[in-house]
Amino acid sequence: MRNKYSIFSLFKNALSDHENWQRAWKDPAPKKEYDAVIVGGGGHGLATAYYLAKKHNMQNIAVVEKGWIGGGNTGRNTTIIRSNYLWDASAGLYDHALKIWEGLSQELNYNVMFSQRGVMNLAHNLQDVRDLKRRTHANRLNGIDAVYLNTEEVKKFCPIINTSQDIRYPVLGGTLQRRAGTARHDAVAWGYARGADEMGVDIIQNCEVKGIKRSGDTIEGIETTKGFIKTKKIGVVAAGHSSVVANMAGLKLPLESKPLQALVSEPVKPIIDTVVMSNAVHAYVSQSDKGELVIGAGTDDYISYSQKGSHQIVEGTLNAILELYPIFSRMRVLRQWGGIVDICPDASPILSKTSIKGLYFNCGWGTGGFKATPGSGDLFAHTIANDEPHKLNAAFNLNRFVSGDLVDEHGAAAVAH
Amino acid sequence: MFLINCPYCGERDQQEFKAGGEAHIERPKQPTELSDNEWAEYLFMRKNIKGVQFERWNHAHGCRKWFNMARDTSNDEIKAIYKMGEKPPTQ
């Protein structure tokens, strides 16, 4: 039985110089056979395992991760959480996640530092204003909190924004979702890992998938760097590498993997207490609890798995940031990095069965998967356990690319997710 | 970020170019006879290879001509550049 984290356990362990904390999850060797194997130990994969064990009574499962858990896009994103999407299907999906976020620290007994500091999206031209107003109305019809702000209200909510009307892309207004915010990304992976491990899930790190064995249209098992694992169900949650795993099973996905970059500044005292996103100029910024400005840049337009993006992408983002926030002009950038994101043609994810029985894919989250982590795990677990999608992820099936019933969020909701 | 040797202009910075995705996807010859599955395959499904991939590029801020490239997507190393209509290199 796992010790519960609390103020008392913190105090108790402080007395022994923090040397006696129980390890948060085991480091098991893979068993010969599991009821299901999750490929990918990021937030979404670990959440899937957690909910499979918790809600669907599947404890004989494993998560295989080629590196270390949370070392991929879970640890590389800018931690923004919001649910103000335009279409009903997206709103349902992302708000489901947001509702779970609201109680997640308590549920996991792990502080994921979920902070509902609000997310503000800026409008810089007349079309932005119309689109954002339309989105605000759509959100409210779907029960998602959203308000439209004029320029003065934007300035009042975030005083450091330059609202002068003579800049290249003046701020004409914005939307605000107050329930939105940020969370500590590593803690989400660690919290789900600890929770899943406690229920008996094997989390196997440094274990890369090398092949998928199938007979006809049924799954037989998975070939890994730690040997063959027999299983009838495989849930692939491999983000940027989803196509690589799909190719092993002889499947093609409608994905393109591209580098997405982010950067943080040196830490400073609290200066921005919300998240501000601007899709038109592609700049978004928030401040971490350590004081660093967390800045997200855009994707490159070419396919790459190199985890390196182009310099001019960062330059473009910083130009926009400096015009909107002249106060940041003398700050230095501390770190800059890239991750590989898998982008669908309609910029919506895939949580779906496939033509192969027992093979499921959770991918295509593109530039904005972090916010959906708990909801994605919950719905994907449902899909795997029942071999049928939940009504909230039914629209996000692979077949939509055949039927044409796309969930086109690309320009409609936000370029930056 | 890398340098690209445009077959018409010579070596230029990658930011002058626009990536055009997977190459050698042929437009169906008889679109009216295509099933929905075949349309989906043509329009949306991509190999998205980790390794050497054939792709189209456009020198958007230069000669504006299209050409093909064989590039290793795992490290962005360019293996070959060849013109539109030419067959991809076998090695």
Main features:
heterodimer; A: 417 residues; eight-stranded mixed sheet; six-stranded mixed sheet; 10 helices; B: 91 residues; mainly beta; Folate-binding fold; four-stranded antiparallel sheet; two-stranded antiparallel sheet; 1 helix; 6 strands; 9% helix
Order of helices and strands of chain A: HEEHEEHEHEHEEHEEEEEHEEEEHEEEHH
Number of domains of chain B: 1
Rg value of chain A? 21 Å
Indicate the overall shape of chain B. globular
Instruction: Tell me the strand percentage band of chain B.
Output: 35-45%
What separation lies between the terminal Cα atoms of chain A? 39 Å
- CATH homologous superfamily caption of chain B: Folate-binding superfamily
Q: What can be said about this structure in brief?
A:
The complex is a heterodimer of chains A (417) and B (91). Chain A is of the alpha/beta class and 417 residues long.
Could you characterize what this model shows?
The complex is a heterodimer of chains A (417) and B (91). Chain A has 417 residues and is of the alpha/beta class. Chain A is 29% helix and 24% strand. Chain A is built from 10 helices and 20 strands. In chain A, a hairpin with a 5-residue loop joins strand 16 and strand 17. Chain A is globular, with a radius of gyration of 21 Å. The model of chain A has no long low-confidence stretch (mean pLDDT 95). Chain B has 91 residues and is mainly beta. The longest helix of chain B has 8 residues. Chain B has a 4-stranded antiparallel sheet with strand order 3-4-5-6, with no helix packed on it. Chain B has a two-stranded antiparallel sheet with strand order 1-2. Chain B contains 1 helix and 6 strands; from the N terminus they run βββαβββ. Chain B has a single domain, classed as Folate-binding superfamily (Folate-binding fold, 2-Layer Sandwich). Classes of the chains: A alpha/beta (417), B mainly beta (91). Chains A and B meet through helix 7 and helix 10 of A and strand 3 and helix 1 of B.
